[in-house]
Write a structure and sequence with these properties.
The complex is a heterodimer of chains A (about 375) and B (about 400). With about 375 residues, chain A is α+β, with helices and mostly antiparallel strands. Chain A has helices at about 50-55, 100-105, 115-125, 140-155, 170-190, 200-205, 225-230, 235-240; strands at about 5-15, 25-35, 35-40, 65-70, 70, 85, 160-165, 190-195, 210-215, 215-220, 245-255, 255-260, 265-270, 280-285, 290, 300-310, 315-320, 325-335, 345-350, 355-360. Chain A folds into two domains: about 5-235, Rossmann fold (3-Layer(aba) Sandwich); about 240-360, Nucleic acid-binding proteins (OB fold (Dihydrolipoamide Acetyltransferase, E2P)), CATH 2.40.50.140. In chain A, a hairpin with a 2-residue loop joins strand 11 (about 245-255) and strand 12 (about 255-260). The chains are: A alpha+beta (about 375), B mainly alpha (about 400).
Chain lengths: ~375, ~400
């Protein structure tokens, strides 16, 4: 079997069940390219962590095969897989100093002492903790501990680095800072990283590609901007970023554009996959792509009544009722200002065809 | 309602008071009395003050003079008439065997027939021992109120003619070797318990909660069962005609005449005590192991360590506080253990505690019992200090 040269990891028809009855992962196919940052994104229980644990060797697939560099790793125990792992709660060894923690993977590999010292020092430099080699993990802050854990997963130069919600226990500010650090470390070292998170913002920041998981199935694998701009499934549209979702029935089809009846009105939408007249569909419209008092070139314009307005710093969040449905959200950039609108006002809102994506209805 | 600091302290003191009083009365006071008793023995001194006074002048080389004989003889006769000589004679007898009958016999003879002439001649006539210098030395020493003799005795030592410290004759040395054996058996019990308990505690700590509960119950049920019941069950199992021997004979592993002697010896003591003390090892280990995240072993594996490397470098060091706590607990408990060795120990499986009990209950030599107890206490404290130095007691957690 030939392998594309840039494919490093493949999940082939993987299924996993813990109790023999419920399938956590029914049938998973996925590949990871060499040197890429792939994030497995999904809500808890979606199977993303199971996927990572199988790759690390802590769980065994019920069926199917995982290949690394074209070779099945089925019979390889975790310690032979050459994968550095970073856990949510750091899993640093509390009885060893930071330096000893970093030295551990090199010692068990029989690396020579001077080479060991050099690599430990280098790894500490990468995470900017040069002076902390003699501290114990307990003496470090959460952010520092996680940097040590990252350094420990890098120090033996593994083929892949796996991260299981590594920033979950940190506060937001620190999380954002570490995201940027992890990103730049990965870009600098060019190491393949597989990262698990439930935080879509984090996934956006870090990833070359994101695999969105739900109920053990991959919904879509794409680069962050593609995922955001061109969600292929209703779940992705809902999970990644904010979206206004309108349910309706296709009334006419013209090329890639269809007309959809939503309540009493007709909306023009771009079809993500071919739909036929009579099909149920979900329209996804980004709040920031909706404008107030639209000009003539907006093909969709409707009347709405303003329910509420909240100032959010960089934008105003205006929620309106339209098509007899409340909670249709419009985001107005703050440089435009609220434009003299008050709750209770009737306004016109509009959006273009290309910003209105008709997705298959998955609600039934 | 805000309490001031003093009020809070007062309240804390009041809440603790009943326990403090209880401990003081039932534990500290007896302990202090025991320590006092090991060096202070006024009974003889109070009973024969005149004799001791007369002997105080004596140089201890030749026999005392006629005056001393007369005072001693009269005092013995008087005490005997009050039936108080027996307890004095018993105490002197501990320093020199045969003295009890010598003193009582002489007092009886002199009481029936008071000497008209020399008391010295009359006493020597009644018992030749009175012509020995050592007899009088023994009486003099028995009269010391504050005495190191119980400690010397407990360490298989004695005092020579001029008070120098000498070893006991070989056939009377028992306590030091018994003490050594007690420490040896206790160390063996601790080690065996540790080896048996460690895997069980591991299982308990890392089993899924539902199964861990059942397993923990299996550990605790024996813990809640009476010590006597457990010890006697071992007799049923291990004795010559017991379950295990019968089974081995029936299966054909042993011939009828090869039945193993597993009880009423050191083996019996070790087996039964390991069983009795096992929970004290398992529980501290379990409570420590539960705090070691299972993720650590996974992390070590992902870093390339084999199971044994992970265990040795990552798990074992983190479980050491539990190992330390369990071992110290089991070791200290075994050193003072009494009931189990007494029941299943036979001759070779006895520990120092049985000797202390013997002197408390049989020979009524409480001073010696107290000295043995004090030495044991001292050794345990010493051990604790060394151990603290090596392991660090602050790292040790019981649960």
């Amino acid at each position: 079997m030939s392998i594309a040269t840039d494919t490093q990891i493949e999940f082939i028809n993987i299924s996993k069940s813990y109790d023999g009855k419920t399938m956590v992962l029914p049938n998973l196919n996925m590949s990871v390219r060499r040197g890429e940052f792939l994030t497995l994104l999904g809500p808890s229980g979606s199977g993303k962590t199971t996927c990572l644990m199988m790759l690390a060797g802590f769980e065994t697939p019920t069926s199917g095969e995982i290949r690394v560099n074209g070779e099945s790793v089925h019979n390889l125990p975790p310690q032979k897989r050459d994968m550095g792992m970073v856990f949510q709660n750091y899993a640093l060894f509390p009885h060893m100093t930071v330096g000893q923690n970093l030295s551990f993977p090199l010692e068990v590999r029989g690396t020579a002492p001077d080479e060991r010292a050099r690599r430990v020092q280098r790894a500490l430099e990468i995470v900017r903790l040069e002076d902390y080699g003699d501290r114990r993990p307990g003496q470090l802050s959460g952010g520092q501990q996680q940097r040590v854990a990252i350094a420990r997963a890098l120090v033996f130069e593994p083929g892949v680095v796996l991260m299981d919600e590594p920033l979950g226990a940190l506060d937001r500010r620190l999380r954002e800072q570490l995201q940027l650090e992890i990103r730049s470390i990965q870009r600098e070292l060019g190491v393949t990283m597989v990262y698990v998170t439930h935080d879509q913002q984090e996934a956006m920041t870090l990833s070359d590609r994101i695999a969105v998981f739900n109920h053990g199935e991959i919904q879509q694998v794409a680069a962050p901007e593609t995922l955001y701009e061109e969600p292929a499934r209703e779940f992705v549209a809902r999970f990644v970023g904010d979206n206004n979702l309108l349910r309706g029935t296709v009334r006419s089809v013209d090329g890639e554009v269809c007309k959809v009846q939503v309540g009493e009105g007709l909306v023009e939408a771009f079809m993500v996959e071919p739909l036929e007249v009579g099909d149920q569909t979900v329209l996804a419209i980004r709040p920031e792509r909706v404008v107030l008092s639209p000009s003539m070139e907006y093909s969709n314009t409707v009347t709405a009544s303003v329910d509420d307005m909240v100032f959010q710093g960089d934008h105003w969040r205006v929620s309106v009722t339209t098509f007899n449905q409340p909670e249709f959200v419009v985001k107005i950039p703050n440089f435009i200002g609220q434009g003299g609108i008050l709750p209770g006002d009737r306004v016109r809102v509009g959006w273009t065809v290309i910003d209105c994506r008709a997705l298959p209805d998955e609600s039934r | 309602m805000a309490l001031s600091l003093t009020d809070k302290r007062l309240r804390a003191a009041l809440l603790a008071a009943p326990l403090v009083v209880f401990v003081a009365v039932t534990f500290l006071a007896p302990l202090a009395l025991m320590l006092v008793r090991s060096v202070y023995e006024p009974a003889v001194a109070d009973s024969i003050p005149a004799t001791l006074n007369a002997l105080a002048e004596w140089d201890g080389r030749e026999l005392p003079d006629e005056e001393a004989f007369r005072i001693a003889g009269m005092e013995f006769v008087a005490l005997n008439a009050e039936r108080r000589l027996g307890s004095v004679a018993t105490r002197v007898n501990r320093l020199q065997s045969g003295m009890r009958s010598t003193m009582l016999g002489t007092a009886r003879a002199l009481g029936n027939d008071p000497p008209a002439g020399s008391w010295r001649d009359a006493m020597i006539a009644a018992d030749e021992d009175w012509a020995e210098v050592s007899t009088w030395l023994a009486i003099g020493r028995a009269g010391e109120r504050i005495t190191p003799r119980h400690y010397l005795n407990a360490l298989d030592l004695d005092r020579g003619a001029v008070g120098e410290i000498v070893a006991q004759p070989e056939d009377r040395r028992i306590y030091v070797s018994l003490l050594v054996r007690t420490f040896g058996i206790s160390a063996a019990i601790t080690l065996i318990s540790l080896m048996l308990a460690y895997p069980v505690a591991w299982l308990l700590a890392h089993a899924p909660p539902s199964r861990a509960g059942v397993l923990l119950l299996l550990v605790l049920v024996p813990f809640w069962t009476s010590l006597l019941v457990r010890t006697t069950s071992w007799i049923v199992l291990l004795q010559n005609q017991g379950v295990i021997n019968d089974l081995l004979v029936v299966i054909g592993i042993l011939a009828e005449e090869q039945r193993l002697a597993m009880i009423y010896n050191m083996t019996g003591t070790i087996i039964a005590m390991v069983h009795v003390l096992l929970p004290f090892m398992i529980l501290p280990l379990y409570s420590i192991m539960r705090t070691i995240p299972p993720r650590h072993m996974q992390a070590a594996a992902s870093l390339g360590a084999s199971f044994w490397q992970s265990f040795r470098r990552v798990y074992w060091p983190q479980s050491l506080p539990g190992v330390a706590a369990g071992s110290l607990l089991v070791f200290i408990m075994s050193i003072g253990f009494y009931i189990t060795p007494a029941l299943v120990g036979g001759r070779t499986g006895q520990l120092i505690s049985s000797m202390i009990a013997y002197h408390m209950e049989q020979s009524l030599n409480w001073g010696l019992a107290a000295a043995l107890g004090a030495i044991l206490l001292l050794l345990v404290v010493l051990l604790y200090l060394i151990y603290n130095r090596l392991v660090g007691i602050d790292r040790m957690r019981l649960g």
